[in-house]
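Renewal narrative, Specific Aim 1. Our central claim is that a sequence can be written position by position from structural information alone. The example that follows is taken directly from our test logs and has not been curated for this report. It begins with the structure tokens describing the chain, in the order in which they were read.
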């Protein structure tokens, strides 16, 4: 019985360490994403003066927004405990793929390439 109690305590300790590592990573990333967000906002303001930079600025803004969303998801994961997870979260793969294609399309056009994304409007 004592061995089982000891093993359970070790497992709980590892779980606390895992949760703390996730929290620290999310905190560090939040600061970095803040810097990137501010820098992209400045570049977007500067791009308004130069219309040729506008498409790249839009791609940057979409990417920063995506990064912020990923960070938010990471922070949610950091708060989860294994016993609290009952079912997988919904994930809209079609939306993610469409956003990815939309962000790459201007770069393809610059190279005289055509990028087409089609499929169901929403997946699970």
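The sequence written for that structure reads:
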């Amino acid at each position: 019985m004592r061995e089982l109690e000891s093993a359970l305590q070790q497992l709980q300790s590892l779980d606390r360490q895992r949760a703390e590592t996730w929290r620290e990573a999310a905190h560090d990333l939040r600061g970095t994403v803040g810097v990137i967000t501010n820098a992209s906002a400045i570049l977007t303001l500067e791009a308004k003066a130069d219309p040729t930079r506008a498409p790249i600025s839009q791609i940057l803004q979409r990417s920063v927004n995506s990064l912020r969303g990923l960070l938010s998801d990471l922070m949610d994961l950091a708060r989860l405990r294994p016993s609290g997870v009952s079912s997988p979260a919904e994930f809209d793969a079609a939306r993610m793929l469409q956003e990815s294609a939309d962000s790459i399309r201007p770069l393809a056009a610059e190279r005289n390439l055509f990028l087409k994304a089609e499929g169901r409007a929403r997946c699970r």
